[in-house]
Specification:
By secondary structure, the chain is α+β, with helices and mostly antiparallel strands. 61% of the residues lie in helices and 22% in strands. It contains ten helices and ten strands. A hairpin with a 4-residue loop joins strand 4 (123-136) and strand 5.
Length: 491
């Protein structure tokens, strides 16, 4: 009885330092400790993925600004300063003969024009002011020709109006890019969560391996004493020694794997190269009550698909309009009214100018195209129909993905509760089994089974925790809605 008490006391002393030794070993390996929220904030602020998302957003913004600029007045300064030429040209004389004369000429012009696109009709209004100068250096002639103001209008008739279609499509594309940026951020948070729990799981593996080594060392010392007293067979002693060696190898392997995932984690979230890092297991799990219909409504309201589906159909309709407009009867109206004056000096060319008008109506009608225009239209119409079917299918798949994610949240919530209870039970069972083994009532095999079940239960809990948090951020990315706070993630 006294020997049994001695074994128990010795084991208690050896196991008292387990937690402290475990923390010391981990801290020696890893320095900076991050929570899950700190990890996500780092990834959103410093990671390459976050910079790529921000760059894509900026690019989309300037593309939209380019589209908007097409509908604003454009001011252009143009000119030729100078256009000089010196050559010998044939000149017909009054008697019908041809003489070759040297000529030195210079033509210069400068003008300012203001144009405004008319999105409703696809035409263009413009206002131009221009001045021209002509010099003949051989004869000493200088002339000016000025156009103080010319107002005009270009208008395609029965043609394809790209401006009107772009006004419908481009705002949708811009809204898509805005929502895509928010979705990218939630995706980054999801990946950061995955990397976080990868490190946490390897940390737990390393801590369990360290603890198992310490446990096996303590058990082996006790077993040596029991073997010396004849209370333990050599076979059981060797089995314990083998367990100790396996535990030491498992610890070395866990250490290597932990270093690998920690480096990958640090690289993703944007930590300085070489900085050691550790993570802290979340102590609070979001209590989500998610209704399928609410999740679907939020997804349809907030996600880029809201604009993407409409844009795809509009672009297919745009292709039909383009095929019809560019292949059949086309006409262009060009009309101007302005003032002009020629004079030998610049100031006189602007005095009392005369008016001028010009009206041009040009058209083109394909007489024989061997069904080319019809085939082009039919192809565009078939593509429109295919796009409508595809969008309908994508809408159904999108709704199904929302329902699936909501149901997965509920399943993972139940799984997390079960694995948490199993983890506590397995730990308690191992403690009881270990104490029972110390008094010699069970074999080393039973102790090893209890140890394996304890470690498996702990890993299962961490994996369930990981899956739940990843599903939580995937749901946020899928709906752009924070169900924990009850608010949309869109502006």
């Amino acid at each position: 009885m006294k020997k049994t008490l001695l074994y128990i006391v010795l084991a208690s002393v050896l196991f008292m330092g387990e937690t402290q030794a475990q923390q010391t070993a981990t801290d020696a390996l890893l320095a900076r400790r991050l929570t899950l929220q700190e990890t996500i904030d780092l990834a959103l602020g410093s990671s390459i993925a976050s910079k790529q998302a921000a760059t894509n957003k900026t690019s989309s913004y300037w593309q939209y600004r380019t589209f908007k600029a097409d509908y604003k007045p454009q001011v252009t300064l143009s000119g030729t300063l100078p256009d000089f030429s010196r050559s010998i040209i044939p000149v017909i004389q009054p008697d019908g003969t041809t003489d070759f004369r040297a000529v030195s000429l210079s033509n210069s012009d400068v003008g300012v024009s203001i144009s405004q696109a008319v999105g409703l009709t696809g035409g263009q209004l413009f206002l131009t002011s221009q001045s021209q100068r002509f010099d003949d250096f051989n004869q000493g002639i200088r002339r000016y020709n000025s156009f103080p103001a010319i107002i005009g209008f270009r208008q395609p008739i029965f043609g394809y109006n790209a401006l009107a279609w772009n006004r419908k499509v481009e705002p949708l594309r811009f809204q898509e890019s805005e929502r895509q940026f928010l979705e990218d951020r939630e995706t980054i948070a999801t990946v950061a969560t995955q990397r976080f729990f990868d490190v946490l799981l390897e940390q737990v593996n390393y801590e369990m391996a360290t603890k198992n080594v310490e446990n096996n060392q303590a058990l082996f010392k006790i077993a040596e004493e029991k073997h010396r007293l004849g209370r333990l067979s050599r076979n059981e002693l060797l089995q314990l020694k083998l367990s100790l060696m396996n535990a030491q190898m498992a610890k070395a392997q866990a250490s290597t794997e932990l270093k690998t995932v920690a480096m990958q984690f640090a690289a993703y979230v944007g930590l300085p190269k070489g900085e050691k890092v550790a993570v802290q297991s979340p102590t609070v799990v979001p209590e989500l009550q998610v209704e399928e219909q609410v999740a679907l409504e939020q997804a349809q309201r907030n996600r880029k698909e809201r604009f993407q589906f409409e844009r795809k159909v509009l672009q297919a309709q745009q292709q039909v309009a383009e095929a019809k407009g560019k292949g059949g009867f086309n006409a262009d109206l060009y009309a101007t009214f302005g003032l002009t004056k020629s004079a030998s000096n610049f100031s006189e060319s602007y005095a009392r100018p005369e008016n001028q008008q010009q009206v041009i109506l040009g058209f083109s009608v394909p007489l024989v195209d061997w069904g080319r225009q019809k085939a082009s239209v039919k192809t565009a119409q078939a593509n429109l129909q295919l796009t409508q079917y595809t969008v309908e299918q994508e809408q159904t798949a999108f709704e199904q993905s929302v329902y699936t994610q909501v149901n997965q949240i509920e399943l993972l919530k139940a799984r997390l509760q079960l694995t948490s209870s199993a983890d506590s039970i397995a730990q308690e069972r191992y403690d009881i089994t270990k104490a029972t083994f110390l008094v010699g009532r069970i074999s080393i095999t039973d102790l090893n089974i209890a140890l394996q079940e304890k470690d498996q239960a702990r890993r299962a809990y961490i994996t369930a925790l990981q899956d739940y948090w990843i599903a939580y951020y995937r749901l946020r990315a899928l709906t752009l809605y924070d169900f924990e706070l009850g608010k949309s993630l869109t502006p």
